[in-house]
Write a structure and sequence with these properties.
single chain, seven-stranded mixed sheet, 37% strand
Length: 998
């Protein structure tokens, strides 16, 4: 039971229009982070604090390792929270129908009004509404919401709380029902040839005050606001919903498309005896599309590929709390990559997300569930599926049915039940639920269970026969060809493609198609050469080629557009708390993967160099330099000297599309055993090649420049420069003006630069922020391995960059952001906040949250497995060891790989002696490990590693070496080790025990 607990103050509600924003003046109490059930705290309990919705309490917490957190959900706790809001309604609202609408509460919510339970809603991703029998005599009403998120309730970070918008809806007893307007354009592909569209407006309404005759008038306005059509229908309204239909002819309509997202507005009025008693505005677009089993996808009669990405719903440092500005920023970054479609993985999106896609010209596959009856995690939606899935699915379709962006409904992702006997009946029910609301869009699902053609009559076969099309997850080229041959009337696309993992600015083993993971604490990063793959995944280049070569294949949805919190594959260790899959990191900073897809999906001339770091190399060291480009030639210059021009060949697919690719064996598909390029992905036209150009460059400090040309004319260039010592912070806001409504966000990029303004690629300075005229909403740096709080007042830079998200106040003012870091020049930047109240600007100072210095211990450039990390050299046990040995398992397309690095280093703490003059190290020598060919010794002088003098090595101990040198002062000694058999499976290095002496 929920006892009535009166907050200290009550908000006075005075409706203006049909809806009232109900996101302000809430209080919140986090009862626990375990999810254990508990009553609402007492009215004067100090745990209550003021908050504003949308709100995600989990993102405010520190990541922790414990029984109620997981790596899959980013080590951020869930728990049990209570919200409450006190409000009064004027007597003028007596007799009105009042309801409250929630767009999303995660999860398992209960809503109470004045102590009475209104209802329970388990699913965290669908909206819901309750009628309110609220007092209108000036006496405060108290709304209380209990939210329970028992972790793990998801395979990724979900957030916790009332994380989407809330509103009151106030109407007369005669009114349009919730989601009661449906707009379609029947036979548009035919009518548009005659220069018009027929807009069908179906309005469902009720009368809760007795039978009422009404006229329903629908007025259509074009994208410029001009009235272009009007329709009327008579309706006899009762307490049971009834639907009236009007067909409205629209002459020469503006068609919604990804390039011109023109939107129409339908204003629907219910008139009783000539008086308008309810008005609802519906935004929609006029467009037609088709999925053809032989020709793929087309929009408004124009064939195009779906150039899509998967996006989870978290917004980085903001968590799951919805923000239109953050969503628009995400989509702008994706559009700049060439993206035209998004799959909402794996749940219904917020209305703000759908609205942004409509306005920006982004197609949508809206997905319902990540699980049906069989759960994937202990506390997930599987607990509620049987009782709630039909209502939740219909809610999903109702919420987005009028959006021109939506072109597919998905009933699930990687569903275990789909290969069981229970699967086909469930699928049939879900399909019927969708079609009960909308018959204009195809129904699909995303699946990893069709990598082989299913047996006739199997559950997979039965379900595919019911669906209109199928989204495949990580299928190779031969498997999609086989499916297309078996099911010639179904359309196919890749619902999840690639899953290549990477860390911004980190590179490893460019000559390998697959490479091992670094397990050294603090260095758990993944290579950005598109070459870190799990057993089920494939490279971005492979996915792009496979999609390109098949006209019938509708396109792909890359896994993923952005990194997201949780699912830190391949690491399952604290504090690695975000994914590595994204083309863009959680802060919104592009990785090299972004530029690969941009080179294939965007027509704007571009070239991108990697590695993006032209600083952290030794003189003369060969560096593998790649260029992604959509120009046919790229010439590389180092300090003004040409290093040669590389060229793509111009090729043509079997269906007549031209593309750029090198011509060479790629070694990226072991399933290809015949043809001119065995072992390489080979296009149906018989050609193979890469989507990037390469040079091997002996490193010299300076400026590396790529010049891209088409037909000999320069069209784009990119450069990387060697950075000096960190000197200053540079701040760059993403806008110069924002709204003074308390919700407007500005995203301020902080870069650590040298005196010449070059970003220092290995800078990790702790940056603290001060904001005048607004407040900090969150801080991020895109680093996956981090225990920093997203909403602290300071954050380290990662590879030279960090992000501050700044929220506007409610007063018209200038927002000033100042960033400081010890030893660096301070930076400030300003943004105008307009449209608010006049008044003094707020001044907030966020104290720098000190990042605890790790206890000095052993370190290494690379550790091949999670149980062979450097600490094992110091634990005193001969049975444990550090090793750079790794075995990368085979994938569906690539063989297993285990190739020793040419060099690696380890460092040891100088903790018990004032001066260090010796090191003793016991090396491994077995089938995989060999003694090092050479050892170089250096010490840390506070700024750099400096070689020691008079080094002598004594191997008289067999596999144990004693190294002596002139004594030095420093807190660590480093051993640079050279393999005696690099590139082999028996040249790895390992140390079981090491120590530093005088």
């Amino acid at each position: 039971m929920c006892a009535v607990q009166a907050p200290a103050r009550a908000a006075h509600v005075q409706p203006v229009g049909r809806t009232v924003d109900f996101t302000g003046a809430w209080q919140f109490a986090l009862v626990n982070t375990t999810g254990d059930d508990a009553p609402q705290p007492g009215g004067h309990d100090p745990s209550w604090r003021d908050t504003r919705l949308p709100h995600d309490w989990s993102i405010e917490l520190d990541p922790v390792q414990g029984p109620h957190t997981t790596a899959g959900t980013g080590f951020l706790p869930g728990g049990l929270g209570w919200y409450r809001k006190s409000f009064t309604l004027p007597s003028s609202m007596s007799g009105k129908k009042v309801s409250i609408e929630f767009d999303g509460v995660y999860m398992d919510s209960e809503v109470y009004l004045n102590g009475n339970l209104l209802g329970r809603h388990p699913y965290g991703y669908t909206g819901f509404a309750y009628d309110l029998d609220a007092r209108t005599d000036g006496t405060p009403n108290v709304l209380a919401v209990k939210v329970r998120n028992q972790v793990p309730s998801s395979r990724w970070y979900s957030g916790s709380g009332i994380y989407r918008d809330v509103r009151l809806v106030v109407t007369e007893p005669v009114h349009v029902t919730r989601h009661g307007v449906k707009v379609t354009t029947p036979d548009l592909a035919a009518t548009i040839r005659s220069g018009h569209a027929v807009m069908r407006v179906e309005t469902t309404a009720v009368s809760e005050s007795g039978d009422t005759g009404a006229e329903i008038v629908s007025t259509v306005r074009d994208p410029r606001g001009r009235i272009v059509g009007r329709g009327r229908a008579r309706a006899a309204l009762t307490a049971e919903p009834s639907t009236a239909t009007a067909d409205i002819r629209i002459g020469n309509p503006d068609l919604w498309s990804v390039d011109r997202p023109d939107l129409y507005t339908v204003d629907t009025e219910i008139r009783v005896r000539g008086r308008a008693v309810d008005t609802v505005s519906t935004r929609t677009g006029i467009r037609y599309f088709a999925f053809d089993a032989d020709n793929g996808f087309s929009l408004n009669g124009v064939e195009m590929k779906l150039k899509g990405v998967n996006l989870h719903h978290d917004l980085g440092a903001l968590g799951s709390a919805v923000s239109s500005d953050a969503i628009v920023r995400q989509l702008r970054i994706m559009k700049s990559m060439g993206v035209n479609a998004v799959r909402t993985s794996h749940n219904p999106p917020s209305p703000e997300f759908v609205r942004a896609c409509e306005e920006m010209g982004v197609l949508l596959q809206v997905e319902a569930f990540d699980t049906w009856r069989t759960p994937k995690t202990k506390f997930d939606y599987g607990r509620f599926f049987d009782d709630h899935s039909s209502a939740d699915l219909r809610e999903m379709v109702h919420a987005a049915k009028n959006s021109p962006s939506v072109v597919m409904w998905s009933i699930g992702n990687e569903i275990p039940d789909s290969s069981a006997a229970a699967g086909p009946p469930i699928a049939r029910r879900l399909i019927d639920d969708v079609r009960a609301v909308d018959t204009t869009r195809p129904i699909v699902m995303g699946s990893d269970r069709y990598r082989r053609v299913p047996a006739i009559g199997s559950p997979q076969d039965q379900i595919l026969q019911m669906l209109d099309g199928l989204g495949l997850n990580y299928n190779d080229a031969s498997s999609i060809d086989s499916l297309h041959a078996r099911y010639p009337t179904k359309f196919f696309f890749e619902a999840e493609s690639s899953s290549s993992t990477s860390t911004r600015g980190r590179y490893q083993d460019a000559d390998q198609l697959n490479t091992g993971e670094n397990h050294t604490p603090g260095r758990r990063n993944l290579s950005s050469y598109d070459n870190n793959l799990e057993t089920w995944t494939y490279s971005g280049e492979y996915g792009l080629k496979k999609d390109r070569d098949r006209k019938w294949f509708a396109g792909q949805f890359l896994w993923t557009g952005f990194d997201y919190i949780g699912e830190p594959t391949p690491y399952d260790v604290y504090p690695v708390k975000s994914s590595f899959f994204g083309a863009v990191d959680t802060a919104g900073f592009s990785k090299d993967f972004y530029h690969l897809f941009r080179s294939q999906w965007s027509g704007e001339p571009m070239v991108h160099l990697l590695p993006m770091d032209w600083t952290g190399h030794k003189a003369g060291e060969p560096v593998s330099v790649w260029a992604y480009s959509n120009a046919d030639t790229v010439e590389l210059y180092l300090n003004g000297k040409s290093l040669g021009e590389r060229r793509f060949d111009t090729k043509t697919t079997v269906h007549g599309s031209r593309y750029l690719e090198t011509t060479e064996a790629t070694g990226d598909d072991k399933t290809v055993t015949t043809g001119p390029y065995p072992g390489s992905y080979t296009s149906p036209n018989g050609s193979a090649g890469k989507l990037h150009l390469t040079w091997s460059v002996p490193f010299q400090p300076g400026r590396l420049v790529a010049v891209a040309r088409r037909g000999g004319v320069e069209v784009a260039r990119d450069e990387v420069r060697t950075a000096g010592e960190p000197h200053a912070i540079r701040l760059t806001p993403d806008r110069r003006m924002t709204r003074a409504d308390g919700k407007g966000l500005t995203f301020v990029t902080a870069e650590v630069v040298d005196r010449a303004g070059v970003v220092v690629p290995d800078a990790h300075d702790l940056i603290s922020y001060q904001v005048r005229g607004g407040s900090l909403a969150g801080l991020d740096n895109g680093r996956q391995e981090s225990a920093e709080n997203y909403q602290a007042g300071s954050r380290t830079a990662f590879n030279g960059k960090a992000l501050a998200v700044v929220r506007s106040g409610r007063s018209t003012s200038v927002i000033t952001v100042t960033a400081r870091a010890p030893g660096l020049r301070t930076a400030s930047t300003s943004v105008a906040a307009v449209g608010g109240r006049s008044g003094a600007a707020r001044h907030t100072t966020a104290d720098a949250a000190p990042v605890p210095s790790p206890a000095l211990g052993a370190d290494a450039s690379y550790s091949g497995a999670r149980d062979t990390i450097p600490a094992a050299m110091l634990d005193g046990s001969g049975s444990t060891h550090w090793s750079n040995y790794y075995l990368k398992r085979a994938t569906a397309l690539l063989p297993a790989v285990s190739r020793a690095h040419a060099t690696d280093w380890v460092s040891l703490p100088v903790s018990e002696v004032e001066q260090a003059g010796s090191v003793r190290a016991s090396f491994l020598s077995d089938a995989s490990h060999a003694l090092p060919a050479s050892i170089a010794v250096s010490y840390w002088n506070g700024r750099a590693h400096v070689p020691v003098r008079d080094v002598k090595l004594d191997w008289s101990g067999g596999t144990t070496v004693t190294i002596t040198f002139t004594a030095v002062r420093g807190d660590r000694i480093r051993l640079d080790l050279t393999s005696s058999a690099p590139g082999t499976a028996h040249g790895f290095l390992g140390i079981s025990h090491a120590s530093v002496g005088r």
